Amino acid sequence: MSGTEMKYINEAFESNWIAPLGPNVDAFEMEMASCVGVKGAVAVSTGTAAIHLALSLLDVQKGDTVFCSSLTFVASANPILYQGAEPVFIDSEPDTWNISPVALEKAFREAASASKIPKAVIIVNLYGQPAKMDELVSICKKYKVPIIEDAAESLGSKYKGKASGTFGDFGIFSFNGNKIITTSGGGMLVSNNTEALEKARFLATQARDPAPHYQHSVLGYNYRMSNILAGIGRSQLEVLDERVNKRRAIFETYQEELAHIPGISFMPELEGTFSNRWLTTFTINRSNTNLPPIELLHALDSENIEARHVWKPLHMQPLFSNYKYYPHAKNESVSEELFKTGICLPSGSAMTLEDQMRVISCIKKILVSG
Ligand SMILES: *Cc1c(COP(=O)(O)O)cnc(C)c1O
């Protein structure tokens, strides 16, 4: 926590706004919109809910398809299934680990020739690193398909000076406990389309028609954020820059200490982009180290250090085994390779240098001594 959360929580208590609406919600929405530079924002219960609302607003329905990054957390794609639509998964490219413009173009070409153009494309910015937005936006424009930018992990990141999450028709953020700032659980839908955001507000509050009684003409959801949690969010937003600096410093220390070890490659930061370095991740090349990532994870675990594999690509998940996948190149599946070789290191903003040096010396011991 940042330390000033109680001020906003007390305000909520004193004014008796303990509802999924109230002055903290309104203020948090305005502060987020101005922080990332968009016309409006709608605070919701989770990042997943924000993606679901965006798909609803884009009229994604049963029988439709939606293109989605494969290398991501399951929450990026689950709302496609909530709508009864079909995901089509797109591989990563090596420069950002995010959605490959080459694979995306191929998926669009085939979709166009089959007259099955998707209703939307969900572009994820993995571990804080912005995707190749210029290329991706221009492909989606060519086929006139709207973008939902999943910036759940990339609040505070920038692509050519512009905030991550603001390149699509809709952007979404998450304030889940593991993200760079948190409200314990929460999310935000952002857009420059204020009319669509009004509709999102309506859908997120059970789609209640303006009538003196309770009347409902369309299906809605109970997705709004509480005024108490929004208070936590306001306080957290005040320390976002600090958090980003801390995460980047953690990344830099790991890199300085470990990058010289043969076979270790850190997640790149594309030129012209600024990553919040939400998590520090690297890949281990087996031909250099002769060590499968799982053994490094076990060795760290035996020292009570929690590290993780990178996300398992969604096209490899049993849940999504029936859906199409477009690899980066005919014989090159970048996301599968990243899953096989990638590791996420402990990267929390509260981590001390001492903690970090303990992780580093443990990794050196394993990788250098073999
Ligand atoms: C965390 C996360 C989400 C979902 O956010 P919740 O607030 O947990 O629902 C969506 N996409 C990605 C890439 C995430 O990391």
Characteristic key phrases:
370 residues, alpha/beta, binds pyridoxal-5'-phosphate, Aspartate Aminotransferase, domain 2
Low-pLDDT sequence parts:
none
CATH fourth-tier homologous superfamily of the largest domain: Type I PLP-dependent aspartate aminotransferase-like (Major domain)
> What is the CATH first-level class name of the largest domain?
Alpha Beta
CATH topology of the largest domain: Aspartate Aminotransferase, domain 2
Give an account of the 3D structure:
- This protein has 13 helices and 15 strands.
- It is 39% helix and 15% strand.
- The longest helix has 19 residues, at 240-258.
- It has 2 domains: 5-240, Type I PLP-dependent aspartate aminotransferase-like (Major domain) (Aspartate Aminotransferase, domain 2, 3-Layer(aba) Sandwich), CATH 3.40.640; 241-369, Aspartate Aminotransferase, domain 1, CATH 3.90.1150.10.
- Helix 1 packs antiparallel against helix 8 (227-238), helix 2 runs parallel beside helix 8 and helix 9 (240-258) runs parallel beside helix 13 (353-369).
- The strands form 3 sheets. It has an 8-stranded mixed beta sheet with strand order 1-9-8-5-4-2-3-14, sandwiched between helices. The chain has a 4-stranded antiparallel beta sheet with strand order 10-12-15-13.
- By secondary structure, the chain is an alpha/beta fold.
- A hairpin with a 2-residue loop joins strand 6 (158-159) and strand 7.
- It is globular, with a radius of gyration of 21 Å.
- The model has no long low-confidence stretch (mean pLDDT 96).
- It has helices spanning 5-15, 23-36, 47-57, 78-82, 101-113, 133-142, 194-204, 227-238, 240-258, 286-289, 293-302, 334-341, 353-369, and strands at 40-44, 65-69, 86-90, 120-124, 147-150, 158-159, 162-163, 170-174, 187-191, 264-266, 273-274, 281-284, 308-309, 325-326, 342-344.
